[in-house]
């Protein structure tokens, strides 16, 4: 380490293709990509998966396809995190609970303990999510190696208030699992950069790639620093995107332009 303020983390994002309605194929693909990530010469500290990777958007059959209580997913992800000592942001899955199916992201610490679960708050009507899924009712806060972070899922990034709330609660990193399709690549990149710049935090966004029916997903997973610079960005193909980040940059940027001190919420916050 160059100085004792550095707080470096290696990140690997699993930009995977997802087969709609085929959980077995998706579990196998995720397991293969996880092992590939763990075997990288520069072993990652954090691995991130995309949204709804177990079922894709097979919403008509989601009740039968979703993982009951997420138990299969949790046991696989927890075992991986513990075995390799890697913090895992396990994307999100279709998770079946008594009341219905949720789009839920799990976070496992390096000991394999589930340290956060976040169910997507904003359901995306353009893809009929609200007809088949239930919305979560709490923001996604978590800790990564003692640092505060947040999780939002896909469409959530259109809601700047949520990212701001997470930042105000101390998040230095925002993780975003997604299944964001063409033709809105411009929205994806711009919104992610905006969330990073306005909140002066790292944004680590893992999108799926490939095609389901007539919807094509463009990948372009991204790691963006608190100054809004793109640290890494994937293309449209299935790949593992890696990046090194230094969390000390968050404090540097926040000291340079003290947005959090200068805000005047009494004039414009609800
Ligand atoms: O907001 C968008 O354009 C895409 C959102 C989306 O695909 C999702 O939330 O699943």
Automatic annotation (TrEMBL):
PROSITE patterns xref list: CN_HYDROLASE (PS50263), UPF0012 (PS01227)
Keyword Hydrolase: yes
Keyword line: Hydrolase
Any one GO molecular function term: hydrolase activity
Ranges for domain CN hydrolase: 9-247
Gene3D superfamilies, A to Z: Carbon-nitrogen hydrolase
Sequence similarity: Belongs to the carbon-nitrogen hydrolase superfamily. NIT1/NIT2 family.
Protein name: Hydrolase
């Amino acid at each position: 380490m160059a100085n004792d303020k550095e707080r470096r983390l290696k990140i690997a994002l699993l930009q995977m293709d997802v087969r709609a309605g085929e959980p077995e194929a998706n579990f196998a693909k995720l397991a293969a990509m996880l092992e590939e990530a763990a075997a990288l010469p520069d072993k990652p500290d954090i691995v991130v998966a995309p949204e709804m990777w177990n079922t894709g958007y097979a919403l008509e059959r989601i009740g039968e396809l979703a993982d009951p209580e997420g138990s299969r997913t949790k046991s696989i992800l927890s075992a991986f995190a513990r075995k390799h000592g890697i913090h895992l942001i396990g994307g999100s899955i279709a998770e079946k609970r008594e009341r219905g199916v949720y789009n839920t992201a799990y976070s496992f610490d390096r000991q394999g303990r589930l340290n956060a679960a976040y169910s997507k708050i904003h359901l995306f009507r353009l893809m009929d999510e609200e007809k088949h899924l239930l919305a979560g009712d709490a923001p996604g806060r978590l800790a990564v190696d003692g640092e505060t972070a947040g999780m939002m899922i896909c469409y959530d990034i259109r809601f700047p208030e949520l990212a701001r709330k997470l930042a105000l609660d101390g998040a230095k990193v925002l993780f975003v699992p997604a299944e964001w399709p063409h033709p809105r690549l411009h929205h994806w990149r711009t919104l992610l950069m905006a969330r990073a710049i306005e909140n002066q935090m790292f944004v680590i966004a893992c999108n799926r790639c490939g095609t389901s029916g007539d919807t094509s997903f463009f990948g372009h997973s991204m790691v963006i620093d608190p100054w809004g610079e793109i640290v890494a960005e994937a293309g449209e193909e299935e790949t593992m995107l890696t990046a090194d980040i230094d969390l000390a940059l968050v404090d540097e940027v926040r000291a340079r332009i003290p947005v959090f001190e200068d805000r005047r919420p009494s004039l414009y916050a609800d």
